[in-house]
Amino acid sequence: MSLSQSIQPDDDVLVVRPGKWTLIIVTLLRAETLRFSEIKRHAGGISQKMLTTTLRDLERDGFVTRKIFATIPPRVDYELTQLGQELLELADSWRVFAARNRVQVEAARRQFDAAGGEPVIRFIRPA
Question: Which of 16, 34, 6 is nearest to 94 (CA)?
């Protein structure tokens, strides 16, 4: 099967496109419902626009639910759905992978950066 045959247009609904903040937000919602401002405070460094975009993407894909309360100021709470709990398992696996391989990734980045962002060229002579 070729690459063009393996991904069909209808398969797009099954594609999760995690951005930089997706797994962070999912892990923040692990144990409790959080307000928008709480997520922003705990995420550290995320812009309001990026948080809004990421939460909407997570809601659209069915990973989080949003509850809006008619208060002044408006209160918006987010929590993981059952599907979000499954994504949390993936986030936890990713965290374990990252911790286990941090040294190798950092070494690869240093090597890449030292080469000026260019791939290392290796000349191989035929035997």
Answer: 16
Number of domains the chain is built from = 1
For the chain, what is the mean pLDDT? 85
Per-residue confidence band for 16, with pLDDT thresholds at 50, 70 and 90: low
Report the distance separating Cα 26 and Cα 11, nearest Å.
23
48 falls within a domain: yes
CATH code for position 38: 1.10.10.10
Closest CA relative to residue 35, chosen from 96, 77, 89, 90:
77
Question: Is there a domain that residue 44 lies in?
Answer: yes
- For residue 31, give both structure tokens: 């144990």
Which domain, by its residues, includes 82?
15-114
Give the Å distances, CA to CA, from 2 to 5, 6, 8, 13: 5, 6, 11, 21
CA distance 10 to 62: 18
Residue-level pLDDT at 14: 57
Average pLDDT rounded to a whole number, residues 8-35: 79
- 119 within a domain of the structure (yes/no): no
